[in-house]
From TrEMBL:
Gene3D superfamilies (alphabetical): NAD(P)-binding Rossmann-like Domain
UniProt source species: Mariniflexile litorale
SUPFAM superfamilies: NAD(P)-binding Rossmann-fold domains (SSF51735)
Xref: Pfam families: Epimerase (PF01370)
Protein name: NAD-dependent epimerase
Keywords assigned: NAD
InterPro entries named among the record's database cross-references: Epimerase_deHydtase, NAD(P)-bd_dom_sf
Superkingdom: Bacteria
Alphabetized PANTHER family for the sequence: EPIMERASE-RELATED
UniProt key word NAD: yes
Amino acid sequence: MTNQSNNSVKKTVLVTGAAGFIGFHLAKKLLSEGHSVIGLDNINDYYDINLKYARLLELGIEKNEAETYNNLCNSKTHNSFSFIKMNIEDREALPILFKNQDIHIVCNLAAQAGVRYSIENPEAYVDSNVTGFLNILECCRHHNIKHLVYASSSSVYGLNKKIPFSTDDNVDNPISLYAATKKSNELMAHTYSHLFKIPTTGLRFFTVYGPWGRPDMALFLFTDAISKNKPIKVFNNGQMERDFTYVDDIVEGVTRIINKETAERIQSNKFYKIYNIGNNNSVKLLDFIKEIEINMGKEAEKLMLPMQPGDVERTWANVDDLIKDYDYRPNTSIKNGVKNFVQWYNKYYNS
């Protein structure tokens, strides 16, 4: 995606989930545009914490610093990036952070991720995605935050059969607790926008992939297995399609939303907005795997398995509203995106 010219006022942005996949890339992008970023993450062990520390190191924060600077009076700053280790559900600490820092924009990407894991450990999803999000909303309410941007998910569409998925579609039938918590976020944001006139923008992410990606996602799992000459698990016998969206395209879209002033929305009393953010295309899973095989230089051994609980056959984002309002135009092909990931994977794990 071609970068927009950025004449916006420099801001202080709180990015929660800053050691996570999308949060890390967003922090890098915002810093490159001259914004100040306060990164917050609890660095939980849902997946390899060393990958999270490695992302923070790319932002200038050493592992020992990330562990040490976990209180509000002693955060670590490097080139306009500050990091604090904290849970967003901490009802005592988070409000103090908002009180002590002059935060303009909040981008809440902190969440317990993963559809399948929500079946095994539902409490973690309620703690982070519901209680934590309520805490974020309360802090935005009491500390004059200009705009709350937050992560929702394509999972809210459940078993929706209408393709492509539109924000006008009914999303009252989630099929995983993860999806239910994300739908809850949208409802909670609507309430706070209505009652307290807080501009909120929810983004339904569609299968984000790219360098530094999560180890529980398909691209990582497939690449890792092929690298180690292990079979890959292909669910629904390969009859799956996803709107795979490259992380740089996602982050460019999120940044455009952060940079655009909300005065027009406030004047028109449109405090609450929901957008799909995806690649505006649906790719067959087997075609996606083929690109990985090409870049790995070998064919995968495929274990064809039935559909997993909580999963859906096909996703495809209608992003017309995001194009209209923010000139969002993702343009990274699967060919280039997978190539970039495999190059990163080989460098990170095999160098």
